[in-house]
Amino acid sequence: MDKERRLIIAGNWKSNKTVAEALDLVSGLKRELATVTEADIVICPPYTALDAVSKAIFDSPLRLGAQNLSDQAYGAFTGEIAPGMLRDLSVRYVILGHSERRQFQSESDALVARKAANAHANNLVPIVCVGETLVEREAGITEKVVGTQVRGSLAGLTVEQVEQTVLAYEPVWAIGTGKTASSAQAQEVHAFIRSVISSLHGEATGRRVRIQYGGSVKPGNARELLGQPDVDGALVGGASLEVRNFADIIKNTLQSPA
């Protein structure tokens, strides 16, 4: 990654962990990562555990993220979570447009863009996910698909808001499958995403935006993936559910070369 961009590693717990299990995981992460200051470390529990986890990480380097956000404010939107509710729990980041929500909840780029604008309006940092399916990669349309998602999901944001947005490239074919994009494949798409941002908002903005990689990130491959010049961190799924795996991803990435 570029040293001008601060590394950001986030754990997406998805629909896992009771409150007790979440607190147990947090206890271990606080112990293992107590001295980490070189990167932004974000954990994203399910909604039911946000309050307890928020209190548990108050005196630690860990930062709190949520897994979704409404595109609306308070009101008659049954089942939705308004940004003010997240801010009340000291949530700082929010994952938007994850491939699972795009697939199972039919979330569109336009909806993701509205959610991102709502996040920024309430001082939340959106982590906007983009990525192609295996069929799309094999068809040779990765750049077309990802470029459309980037443009659509950031539509309407100001330059300043885009610079404060974290993008997460998650090839759908590598999420939870054990398959991982090679470091070269990841770098290629990350560089492309940066070029799209630059074409929309100027090269300075393109250089400042942080782009994470997500898709079966593990302790054994994290260092090589995150060592690529345009890869600024990781959005970790299954490996973030275990203290040792998540801590080792972070430690291996930050380890100085021998």
Global mean pLDDT: 95
Report strand %.
15-25%
Helix coverage percent? 40-55%
Class derived from helix and strand content = alpha/beta
- What's the β-strand tally? 8
Provide the number of structural domains. Answer: 1
CATH architecture: Alpha-Beta Barrel
Major sheet characteristics: 8 strands, parallel
- Terminal Cα span: 18 Å
Describe this structure in words.
This protein has 258 residues and is an alpha/beta fold. Helix content is 45%, strand content 15%. It has twelve helices and eight strands. The longest helix is centred in the C-terminal third of the chain and has 19 residues, at 183-201. The radius of gyration is 17 Å and the shape is globular. The relative contact order is 0.16. The model has no long low-confidence stretch (mean pLDDT 95).
Q: What are the main properties of this structure?
A:
8 strands; TIM Barrel; about 260 residues; 12 helices; alpha/beta
Describe what is shown at a glance.
With 258 residues, the chain is an alpha/beta fold.
